[in-house]
Specification:
With 79 residues, the chain is mainly beta. Helices cover 14% and strands 38% of the residues. The longest helix has 11 residues.
């Protein structure tokens, strides 16, 4: 299933689509790097952390920390 993560942060609008199980999943290292680049195109020198701004859109999938250095995708409510 395709999951879209979108919103607005310090750098402006962002959006990325990841493919994985409908119930959510732990991101691979490659997926995590893609998300990090989408949230902060100025990395590695930027210190924004991908935050600030309005945050994710209401219909966006969410990311939550999972363990020490991983992220888990939580599907959007209406998917």
């Amino acid at each position: 299933m395709k999951h879209t993560i979108s919103g607005h942060n310090f750098h402006g609008r962002y959006g990325i689509t990841l493919v994985g199980p409908a119930e959510g999943f732990v991101l691979s290292r490659s997926q995590t790097r893609r998300v990090e680049r989408a949230l902060c195109p100025s990395a590695p020198d930027c210190k924004c952390g991908g935050g600030y701004g309005d945050g994710p859109d209401a219909d966006s999938a969410r990311l939550e920390p999972y363990g020490y250095d991983k992220l888990r995708l939580v599907p959007a409510r209406d998917e």
